[in-house]
Amino acid sequence: MTSDRIRILDGNIFVLSEDNGDIIDVRTNPCGFFELDTRFLSRWVLSVNGERLHPLAVHEPHYFEARFFLVPGTPTHYVDAKVSVIRERSIAGISFEERLTVLNHCPTAAEYVLHIEVDSDFAPVLAVEQRRVAPGRLYRRVEEGHLRLGYVRERFWRETTISADDPVEIDERGLTFRVRLDRNARWTTTLHVTGRVLRPDGEDVRNRLHRRRRPGRPELRRDLRRWLTNAPRLSCDWDTMTHTYQRSLVDLAGLRYSPLTLPTQAMPAAGLPWAATITGRDSVLTSLQALPVVPELAAATLRMLGIDQSTVLDDFREEEPGKILREFRYGEMAAFEEHPLSPYFGSADVTPLYVILLDEYERWTGDVDLVREFEAEARAALRWIDEYGDIRGDGYVWYQRRNERTGLVNQCWKDSPDAISYRDGRLPGQPRATCELQGYAYDAKRRGARLAREIWHDPAYADRLEREAAELKRRFNRDFWIADGEYYALALDGDGERVDALSSNIGHLLWSGIVDEARAGKIVEHLLGPALFSGWGVRTLGAGQGRYNPLGYHVGTVWPFDNALIAWGLRRYGYRREAGVIAEGIIAASAYFDGRMPEAFAGFDRELTRYPVRYPTANSPQALATGATFLLLRTLLGLEPYGEYLVVAPEVPARFGRIELLDIPGRWGRMDAIGTVHPGARTSPVA
Amino acid sequence: MSDATAQFFAQLGRHGHERLLRKTSGTIRFDLTRPGGVDHWLVTITHGQVRVSREKAAADAVIGADEQLFERMARGEVKPLPAWLRNDITAEGRFRFVLLLERLFDPPPGARHPRSVPPISREVR
């Protein structure tokens, strides 16, 4: 449903509109101009002589600009417009700008009345789908040359100002231009919409903080060119792969975001429209996936999340010392603690993932300084695993919410309330220890041990971590294994019993390396078997499980990032062909989304629908999905840092043909990787 | 200035704060409004060591707050970040020092260790 929206963005500032450029508030399909988790415009409707406009063409040259070519009325079988309008829209600095051009096609002079209806509800982005009555006071004010819309609740204050470059009549509901055009003449004006976050003294809070001025359009264009030039160049015989790679690079560029805390660096925001903000899991996993193309994202992510690491216990925010945050929001509901998102720490996976990213980042870049600088944070994260993650004191990582009103029931990546279930569909009690959390803990300890030995020069600590990891692996393979199904349980419940649903989580275990060599074959059979593999990718939950639903967010859909991690895991255990099957399925699916990897798509059998069905409310672009493209490429080419070198060991399915990824950045400088199809390879049956 | 505020800064100056990391350095000035005036406190952090003085000097970050609200923050009852989002406190300068504030204050009262939360049993059909 968000699929038909035209979107422009720059990190945490974005505009979603209909295909004629209008913003009309529809609860189930949000439109608007958003910044810092607040909707600053909820209505922006253009008419000419009282008629709404219809798009003949929409062009999106860059992620921060769009162009609409419009005519009045609804075209029937032919268009006979006397007038047409071009709407050119961009994010420019902290404003949203719209240039309007009216073209008179009449053989005589004509008069046109252009009207733009304007309104804002100042809704927090997470509440735009609800029927929330704003507790504060909305106001509108017409002032010399501009319209001011505002929202005040106690001292909390947000304002939108709208102005134009040309003479305009302004009333509380909008702007009106009266234009007289000669035959074949044109007229142009530019509108400016600025969202402001005000202090009680009327100044924007951001003006008083050290930060870099937000780049305007020419700088954004230059920056995007530089970004694309610096990234490795891909050429592949399969056009879909090349196109998706290019699109992913651009999408990732658009999602870069400089938090107030780190004004000169950029980390990935999680996605549009729901999560254009700092997140733990999405930033860590996106940066991890993107290491082969933009390693510097990981440095910013590690810094930002390290600075915000918790040092206290807090029930409302589910904080514990050493924990890495889940997300940070700037909106009204976070401010007034209607939800705990300023910041919220309710996720058990981000803390071990933080250590994993720190290690993997150093392996790629050789940036030992950062590993030294964040030693205390990494040690605190590792301590969190044993002290606060291990709720039952049995050596596993568990979660149980302490904020029973607004905290999350599931604090793993599958965080919807019904995501963790038994095979028969029942829901387990709390606490819960999902299997992939144990894999992450195992991996974090092993990687922490490497950092301790090689960089922190603490061999005793390294030995201890390695011992603990080995012990965890032994115990895990005893307690999570479901003998009759021959796979790992999705979780343990509060009584230590197995939560026995068959899920994609078992694929993450391969990535972490916690799977006993002897059992890997069985796991691979499940992952590529009919219950889990849809033909496009691995479903989050196996078909036939009690709660399976091909359109269920975490109980049946296919997630590209989940599949990228699974493919990487298959590769780790030597199942290169199977990794290729998954990479091929996901890349093939991306073609149906014009190369923009969707957050998730339906788990229907490929045979049944022939095309992947988009999950209705998915974020797009979504950083995790965008990153999947890069990790799949890494997996296909078998890219692995080894000391100062980059090892390239390709295993390329026939569909891809030749893959060349040139100028891969890392501690080796720049390296090329070329993968060709093995002479004996056949196109896999799902192609 | 209130006794509680004076006591808080005296304590901070004497004992520093164990939740500050050794690599942390910088200055934070607190401008605390009370009936009849504004008190300035300068907290200087040098490699995790804290020194407190009463001066209106330039700082990496300047936090403006009502003294009563400040006391509640110092006791861990009010979190600085949501307070900033609500405009209950103001912040100028380098935002990373706003994130650091929590490390100077008491932890939230009454918070539980995850192990002390009673388990919940599974759904029965």
UniProtKB/TrEMBL annotation, chain A:
Transmembrane segments: none annotated. GO terms for biological process: carbohydrate metabolic process. InterPro entries: 6-hairpin_glycosidase_sf, 6hp_glycosidase-like_sf, GDE_N_bis, MGH1-like_GH. Residues 9-191 form the Putative glycogen debranching enzyme N-terminal domain. It comes from the Bacteria. Residues 433-589 form the Mannosylglycerate hydrolase MGH1-like glycoside hydrolase domain. This is Amylo-alpha-1,6-glucosidase. It comes from Micromonospora deserti.
UniProtKB/TrEMBL annotation, chain B:
Gene3D superfamilies: SCP2 sterol-binding domain. Coiled coil: none annotated. It comes from the Bacteria. InterPro entries: SCP2_sterol-bd_dom, SCP2_sterol-bd_dom_sf. Residues 16-106 form the SCP2 domain. This is Sterol-binding protein. It comes from Micromonospora deserti. The lineage of its organism: Bacteria, Bacillati, Actinomycetota, Actinomycetes, Micromonosporales.
